[in-house]
Task: structure prediction
Amino acid sequence: MNLLLDTWRGILRPHRLLPIAMVGGSMIATEAWFTRSQYGVVEAVLMCLGFLALGPWLWRRLFPHGVPLSLWRVGLFGLLGGVIPLLSWAWPYLTSAPHTFLTTGMNTLVVASLFWAGAWGIGRDIEMEQRVAAERARAEEMSRAAERAQLMAIRAHLDPHFLFNTLNAIAEWCREDGEIAEQAVLRLSDLLREVMTGVRIERWPLSKELKLVTDVWELHRIRDPDRFTVQMDLPEPMIEAMLPPMILLPLVENAVKHGPAAGHAGPMGLSITPLGDQLRIRIKNPGPFTGRRDGGEGLKMVERRLALLYADARLRIFAQDGHTIAEVTLPQHERKTR
Result:
């Protein structure tokens, strides 16, 4: 019963119902033209409705996906699929009903052939459409699983040297400056809590992403407050956008690593600019861009995650006035593309 109802729903889809109506309408119009009787039109309508009610379902019932083709199935399909045309042909002989154009002589065989081909074509089309939809859903789930795996990799990517150095510094500050040590522990705790939360979800607000970026920068600065400054250029009011969690984290780590940590003096920067339906996020660090480093995984990871989630997002790294700019452009409003 479920298969029958599912087949009827598939037949009623607009992209499938229109060609069915064209063929069925042509058969009914042909019957009306040649027979010129109300009985013939009613018979043609009933034949088409009977075919739609049972034909495609019969094909799906006898030839489910994965079942090998066999002679007895083909024979049974031909026998049962020809019942309606055969019954229409025999009806005038069994009753006093008149013969009609579609049920006279070889015309009945033509109608039966249309029924067999139609049942095969429509049933197979419905089956293939559902298989494609199932494969698409499976591909989307695999993409989400891949993204979750990449999030786990990002959690591991959080610069271990940076964490170890911070913990070592905290150990020293515990002896020298307990207040700074306490601030560092609390900030590190908040940072790790956000990272663990981000691994388990697919999207979070832009404000959470900015808090994570700020915590990372502040942890770098807490060891040496004069090491660098951060300039933020944010829209007012703040944009209510959803981002993939920690999408900016590798870019921030790279900016610190190749900027202040490499001996380049100057402010760090982060700017967010709405561009119509898109959002442009730039992270700036002092020091000229000299090309991507061989073996680097951070930028590749960001690009892969953007490709999994959006069709029109991109990452660009370029030099500007002695600085390196990492620019992410992505849809401002969440749009699933896979």
Observations:
- The longest helix spans residues 107-157.
- Residues 35 and 100 are 6 Å apart (CA to CA).
- Strands lie at 204-205, 230-233, 242-243, 268-275, 278-286, 314-320, 323-331.
- The chain is about 60% helix and 10% strand.
